[in-house]
Amino acid sequence: MRLNLRIWRQAGPTARGRLEDYSADNVSPDMSFLEMLDVVNEGLIRQGKDAIAFDSDCREGICGACSLVVNGIAHGPDRGTTVCQLHMRRFKDGDTITVEPWRAKAFPVVKDLVIDRSAFDRIIAAGGYVSVNTGGAQDGNTILIPKEVSETAMDSAACIGCGACVAACKNASAHLFVSAKVSHLALLPQGRQERYRRVTAMIAQADSEGFGSCSNEGECEAVCPKEIPISNIARMTREYVKALLVGD
Ligand code: SF4
Ligand code: FES
User: Fold this and answer.
1) Is residue 185 lining ligand 2, measured as CB closer than 6 Å?
2) Is 80 exceeded by the pLDDT of residue 134?
3) Relative to the alpha carbon of 79, which ligand is closest?
4) Which candidate, 64, 69, 129, 205, has a CA 20 to 30 Å from the CA of 179?
């Protein structure tokens, strides 16, 4: 296939960015989207030009590093899929594909398609550890947790911190991400002791990072590669209201 690419180029955080046109020739339908970008970069390097900067690590949907908006959709057109799991067979010969970075005040562009996602790390850090003394390791079966609860907690823990939920939200809200982290710990007995301190601190940190609020658009859920449901946001709000009532 031959594809026309429109790619966001930006030399640095304060530089002015612009979409630039590239052509990707001899693209195999079996290539992943990132492999296609690798091939384009090899061509640019051979010509002595600056390669397109983009983030990736695991390339199998588990690290959350590949943060690209493809044709206006965070992580591209396939549901429940990161952009590293997107394959070129999803496109047609001659297609024009626009590739941009996440756009949110709290995720400044580092270069081209690479953004600084450290705001998420600071939210996680604000949540803190489970610091109560839980004693020695117990036999797993001595703490009985209903299957439905453990599975909901596990589903929340599936969040890979990619930030697509922020990129898709018109308010650049981090509520889906924060609520996944809050839910994961608040649902399990080990995390319940500090649930109110945790939810208050994480929401305060998200606010101070410049993420917006939630207006129930559902765009976050639609693009989330791990299909984290927005019911987590309702749970986080309940946790937060309870935290305000108990004064923690
Ligand atoms: S909630 Fe989904 S979209 Fe948001 S950071 Fe987690 S995995 Fe990514
Ligand atoms: S590179 Fe790790 S999720 Fe895409």
Assistant:
1) no
2) no
3) 1
4) 69
Report which ligand 2 atom has the smallest distance to the Cα of 56. Answer: 1
Cβ of 164 less than 6 Å from ligand 1: yes
Q: 210 is written with which tokens?
A: 């410049």
pLDDT of residue 248: 60
CA-closest candidate to residue 189, choices 228, 150, 163 = 150
Q: Which of 131-135, 207-211, 229-233, 243-247 has the lowest mean pLDDT?
A: 131-135
Left (φ > 0), alpha (ψ -120 to 50) or beta: where does 101 sit? beta
Contacts with 217 (C-beta within 8 Å, 6 or more apart), sequence order: 169, 170, 171
- Cα 203 to its chain centre, rounded Å, is 17
Q: Exposed (0-12), middle (13-18) or buried (19+): which is 220, by Cβ within 10 Å?
A: buried
Tell me, using a 6 A CB cutoff, whether residue 180 lines ligand 1: yes
pTM check: above 0.90? yes
